[in-house]
Amino acid sequence: MTTDAYRRARLAPELPLLIARDPQRVLAWRDGEAISAVRFHAHVRQVAARLPTGIAAVNLCEDRYSFLVAFCAIALRGQANLLPPSRAPQAVNEVMAAHPGCYAVGEQVADPALLHYWQLPLLNMASLTPEDFALPLIPASQIVAIGYTSGSTGTPQANPKTWRSFHASNAGNLAMLQATVGERFHVVATVPSQHIYGLEMSVLLPLLGEISVHAGRPFFPADVAVALAEVPEPRVLVITPVHLRALVESGVELPPVAAMVSATAPMPPELACAAEQRFGAPLREIFGSTETCAFATRRTAQNEAWSLYDGVSLHPQPDGTLIEAPQLEQPLTLADIVTLQEGGRCFQLRGRHADMLEIAGKRASLSDLTRRLLAIPGVQDGVVFQLDTADAIGVRRIAALVVAPGLDEHGILDALRRSIDPLFLPRPLRRVDTLPRNETGKLPRAAMLALLDQHHEP
């Protein structure tokens, strides 16, 4: 999107709910069937006419096509899609409690039962009407979604998103991918639609970019291969580092992939190189957050520096970085600490303000400590984090959870001593069977602390 186009979008009182220069263009692939934009709009109209009255709806649809239909129907009714940090009953109930008068919607029977739950009707193939070809506009300033942070650094926080902001953020993602694979492509995503990354890459792209998306959310490597085979070339695989590592190590052969996209957690360069070599396609990592949406990218196998999307600028601050972006109504301060390069169009990430540690005059970062932990042969997964309480001299201890079936805790600590200052050795370090990652691979802080407490020393 050019600067002039950004300006027009910011001034427009209404913006399209769906972009389709050709109403017959394929928007989604579901159960082996290609679904056109006009057929999709007919489904949206059918559902919108039957939705309950309310201010907002928790969109719990697991099937991606059902989510797309519900997302647009909710927006068409002037309501907001509530996107909880997970579909766990407690997380859903907390979001609903924060929005009195809302309801929840899903395509399946709610299990366990959920108050104020409305089940999406079967999306039939009724005859199209002339109204289905008149694609709607909605107010640009309407809040169409409220995304919640994952809780990896504390309590999940709500982030309202207007339709104007989504149009702007989608333009950056679309330009990045089109520069990589061409104007048209087909997306298969392993991430849930409720996560802001999944929403951007598998909901907004087909709605606003004339891209098609596979309706499933494959989890196991073999399922990813099947889903990719069900869409035409060129194919873009939207994935997370956790899923990508499992895919690389599985030995499963994939249909030709034009590009891979990753987010939600730092991508180890070694994994990026292995994935590119294994699948013969570039891997683009994107940088963003629930608060900002995506605003930068890099090809991790080749570059350490991130390239900003058009219209984005960063301004380093003492305690973080100020970001200005087309999707933001006003500048926002991030906790990330960066060093700008190439006239401010690129940056290197130095850590997060909350990620930085200082003990006895020495400094380290939790992300770097985690990276060194994961580099130990035999460590399959792990995380280093800081505890909330301080010891007798006022220092908050560093802890670690490690998945390493063939190692013991003393051996892991001995390996860490070779690469980090003893001041930053995690104590306690606990070996566990698995880390409490959510659907996108993130680690909610409360879950990490609970797991650490379960494995305390006698």
From TrEMBL:
The keyword Ligase is annotated on this UniProt entry: yes
A single GO molecular function term of this UniProt record: ligase activity
Lineage: superkingdom: Bacteria
Record carries keyword NADP: no
Listed SUPFAM superfamilies: Acetyl-CoA synthetase-like
Coiled-coil zones: none
Keywords of this entry: Ligase
Transmembrane segments: none
One Pfam family, short name: AMP-binding
Occurrences of domain AMP-dependent synthetase/ligase (ranges): 134-304
PANTHER family registered for this protein in UniProt: LONG-CHAIN-FATTY-ACID--COA LIGASE (PTHR43767:SF8)
Protein name in the entry: AMP-ligase
